[in-house]
């Protein structure tokens, strides 16, 4: 299958599985992003037509929520908590270290497509601050050395 | 007989390597031919001891921690499967002072049971509340909740029974129960611990709510940052359906209740109830005007009970033991217990479920053990990013909704974040405004524009530019946000900002506050 086919199939499956639910738009968007990592702009008119919404309404929902993205992320998404509890335990320095190590700012992807860096406001791991989430895994009490090791390990893995 | 070994599946334990510890125990035990039964329990809430491994012995459960994967071999060699001595041995779990000195009502089972085993839930007094509820009228169930004195644990502290009563008395062809599990407040994690550690208690609470007010459909609106809670909830819902505790004709009662988990998408404002309802309807999470109240026109325009996780999870014990039982705990108008979450710069961070009335100082020093860095604690923020910063002089305030109101602070969802003396409070005030700007839904001007202007004004104060005038401007702007915002996001952002300014003026380049005589 070509990447285009995969995208089309993901969108069609997401709509077919969720269309009948009341308030189906968020479940559909989640299903697409779970499958292909982002919500391509091409999907917007398809979803709009299936749910009898305007394209503006669908786009408006995608752009409202921090979690949804319309461009593909890197192979790994690194989220560093910026909230108060992690600040109390040095997240500002950890964030600066991550930006320097990866050579990118928030909302950017490294040139080799390995990492996308995002801020996050609380991972509910406040008893073990500072916290970092890499893909679906939360890591607590993350030191600079530990972050470097986790990034190194992730870089080696095929996501 | 195989030996029961407990290794938590709680996110925070996992964030410290619990899966690797569990794996090492299985491997090492198998190599020595020891027969074990591994239970992935919730966390006991003592996070400085995670990964906390427990072993069932004839004397009770014995704890070891913090266990790292490389410790497992020496634990096994020292007979930890039989409670053997080891430098990580903590003795009987129940005797650890942090845990022993709590009153766990809502968290009674968390860390003890297998969270997704219906059988385990039933064996530990589960579904006794529902059993009673099924034999009662809706009005009687609501009365028990009202009598218990339970107030919304999400932060607003509105009496739960009154909310339910409104929905009960509003006629409609369809009503809904919505659980607000969008626990976005920094420093809070009690919702997550319940959902990962005892999801059935939330499911039972929602089922009771449905039966009380006549709602047949429930939704749990869960934040997207909680993948492990999603997994545990879905496993538990499946087991509850299979056991006929959810679905049609529950336990032969003729009553029905269906439950579905919906994921949020990283918007803090969706923790505000009307914005949450918009999001559940598949829209942008824009705050609604009130009235109409959600209890009258809520989800899809129908009467809706919308409660926080802890509020709903406190319902089963109220229906099991009666409203009076719960009411007997607490002080003044704050009845029952509050699951308090210790976070930030503390030596012993964790979950402390206590009767209202415990002081901040007890929590910070007796439970929290003082700061993690060993420096003096300078400020604590109570109640999430919209809560006030409190200085040391207010540490003797008891945890009580009204006592906090009296010092212009909030208990919120019970999160306590401690900062040591290195904190710059002008920076924290700036952050509060910045956070509001990032998360504002944009509907009302004081929040949408005020937060951005707020960041700029704090920057000018920090830079010493036109200092006195900008301090006054910050106060005026805060006043506008407090009184003119549509919801608590804009309306409460001034709490951290002004409390920082008032209690720590020296950080804003103002003269130090005079010590009260």
Structure characteristics:
heterodimer, A: 159 residues, alpha+beta, Glutaredoxin, 2 domains, 5-stranded mixed β-sheet, 7 helices, 5 strands, 48% helix, 13% strand, elongated, B: 517 residues, alpha/beta, Rossmann fold, Ubiquitin-like (UB roll), 4 domains
CATH topology of the largest domain in chain B: Rossmann fold
Strand content of chain B: 5-15%
The biggest sheet of chain A amounts to: 5 strands, mixed
Helix percent band of chain B = 40-55%
Average pLDDT of chain B, rounded to a whole number, is: 97
Q: Averaging pLDDT over every residue of chain A, what do you get?
A: 95
How do the SSEs of chain A run, as a string of H and E?
HHHHEHHEEEEH
Kindly report how far apart the N and C termini of chain B lie: 67 Å
* Rg result of chain B: 24 Å
Overall form of chain A: elongated
Would you write up a description of this structure?
- The complex is a heterodimer of chains A (159) and B (517).
- Chain A has 159 residues and is an alpha+beta fold.
- Chain A folds into 2 domains: 3-64; 76-156, Glutaredoxin, CATH 3.40.30.
- Helices cover 48% and strands 13% of the residues of chain A.
- Chain A is built from 7 helices and 5 strands.
- In chain A, strands 2-3-1-4-5 form a 5-stranded mixed sheet, with helices on one face.
- In chain A, strand 2 and strand 3 (115-120) form a beta hairpin.
- Chain B has 4 domains: 3-99, Glutaredoxin; 118-326, Rossmann fold, CATH 3.40.50; 329-420, Ubiquitin-like (UB roll), CATH 3.10.20.600; 425-508, NADH-ubiquinone oxidoreductase 51kDa subunit, iron-sulphur binding domain (de novo design (two linked rop proteins)), CATH 1.20.1440.230.
- Chain B has a 5-stranded mixed sheet, with helices on one face. Chain B has a 5-stranded mixed sheet with strand order 13-12-16-14-15. In chain B, strands 8-7-6-9 form a 4-stranded parallel sheet, sandwiched between helices.
- Chain B has 517 residues and is an alpha/beta fold.
- Chain B has helices at 11-15, 18-31, 72-77, 97-100, 118-123, 128-134, 138-148, 160-168, 190-197, 199-213, 227-242, 273-280, 309-313, 315-321, 323-327, 360-367, 401-406, 425-439, 445-463, 467-484, 488-492, 494-503; strands at residues 3-6, 36-39, 53-57, 60-64, 89-92, 176-181, 217-222, 258-263, 304-308, 330-331, 334-335, 337-344, 351-355, 377-382, 389-391, 415-420.
- The longest helix of chain B is centred in the last third of the chain and has 19 residues, at 445-463.
- The N and C termini of chain B lie far apart (67 Å).
- The radius of gyration of chain B is 24 Å and the shape is globular.
- The model of chain B has no long low-confidence stretch (mean pLDDT 97).
- Chains A and B meet through helix 2, helix 4, helix 5 and strand 5 of A and helix 1, strand 12, strand 16 and helix 18 of B.
């Amino acid at each position: 299958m070509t990447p285009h086919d995969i995208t089309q199939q993901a969108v069609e499956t997401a709509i077919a599985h969720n269309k009948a639910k009341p308030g189906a738009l968020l479940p559909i968007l989640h299903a697409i992003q779970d499958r292909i990592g982002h919500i391509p702009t091409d999907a917007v008119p398809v979803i709009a037509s299936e749910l009898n919404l305007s394209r503006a309404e669908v786009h408006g929902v995608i752009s409202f929520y921090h979690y949804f993205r319309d461009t593909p992320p890197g192979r790994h998404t690194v989220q560093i908590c910026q909230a108060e509890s992690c600040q109390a335990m040095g997240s500002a320095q950890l964030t600066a270290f991550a930006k320097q190590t990866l050579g990118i700012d928030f909302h950017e992807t490294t040139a080799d497509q390995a990492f996308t860096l995002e801020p996050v406001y609380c991972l509910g791991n406040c008893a073990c601050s500072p916290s970092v989430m890499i893909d679906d895994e939360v890591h607590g009490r993350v030191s600079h050395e530990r972050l470097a090791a986790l990034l190194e390990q992730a870089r080696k893995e095929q996501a | 007989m195989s030996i029961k070994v407990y290794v938590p599946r709680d996110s925070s334990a996992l964030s410290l390597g619990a899966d690797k510890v569990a794996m090492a125990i299985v491997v090492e035990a198998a190599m020595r031919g020891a027969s074990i039964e591994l239970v992935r329990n919730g966390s006991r809430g003592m996070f400085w001891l995670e990964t906390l491994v427990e072993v069932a012995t004839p004397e009770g459960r014995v704890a070891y921690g913090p266990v790292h994967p490389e410790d497992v071999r020496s634990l096994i060699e020292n007979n930890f499967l039989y409670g053997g001595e080891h430098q990580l041995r903590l003795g009987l779990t129940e005797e650890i002072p942090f845990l022993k000195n709590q009153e766990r009502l809502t968290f009674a089972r968390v860390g003890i049971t297998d969270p997704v085993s219906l059988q385990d839930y039933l064996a530990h007094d589960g579904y006794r509340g529902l059993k009673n509820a099924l034999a009662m009228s809706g009005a009687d169930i609501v009365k028990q909740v009202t009598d218990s004195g339970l107030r919304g644990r999400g932060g607003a502290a509105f009496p739960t029974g009154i909310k339910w009563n409104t929905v009960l008395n509003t006629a409609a062809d369809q009503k809904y129960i919505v659980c607000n599990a969008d626990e976005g407040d920094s420093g809070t994690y009690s919702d997550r611990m319940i959902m990962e550690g005892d999801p059935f208690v939330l499911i039972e609470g929602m089922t009771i709510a449905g039966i009380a007010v006549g709602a047949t459909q429930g939704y749990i609106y869960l934040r997207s940052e909680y993948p492990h809670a999603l997994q545990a909830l879905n496993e538990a819902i499946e087991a509850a359906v299979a056991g006929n505790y959810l679905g049609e004709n529950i336990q032969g009662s003729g009553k029905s209740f269906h439950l579905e988990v919906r994921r949020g998408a990283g918007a803090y404002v969706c923790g505000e109830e009307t914005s949450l309802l918009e999001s559940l309807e598949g829209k942008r999470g824009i705050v609604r005007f009130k009235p109409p109240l959600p209890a009258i026109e809520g989800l899809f325009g129908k009467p809706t009970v919308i409660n926080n996780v802890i509020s709903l999870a406190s319902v089963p014990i109220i229906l099991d033991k009666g409203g009076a039982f719960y009411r007997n705990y607490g002080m003044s108008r704050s009845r029952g217990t509050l699951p308090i979450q210790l976070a930030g710069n503390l030596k012993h961070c964790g979950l402390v479920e206590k009767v209202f009335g415990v002081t901040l100082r007890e929590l910070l020093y007796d439970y929290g053990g003082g700061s993690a860095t060993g420096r003096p604690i300078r400020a604590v923020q109570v109640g999430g990013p919209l809560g006030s910063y409190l200085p040391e002089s207010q540490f003797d305030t008891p945890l009580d909704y009204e006592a906090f109101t009296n010092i212009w602070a909030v208990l919120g969802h019970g999160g306590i974040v401690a900062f040591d003396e290195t904190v710059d409070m002008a920076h924290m005030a700036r952050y509060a405004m910045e956070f509001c700007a990032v998360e504002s839904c944009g509907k009302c001007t004081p929040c949408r524009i005020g937060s951005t202007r707020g960041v700029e004004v704090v920057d000018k104060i920090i830079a010493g530019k036109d200092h006195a005038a900008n301090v006054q401007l910050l106060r005026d702007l805060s006043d506008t946000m407090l009184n003119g915002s549509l919801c608590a996001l804009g309306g409460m952002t001034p709490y951290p900002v002004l409390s920082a300014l008032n209690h720590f003026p020296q950080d804003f380049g103002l003269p130090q506050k005079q010590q009260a005589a």
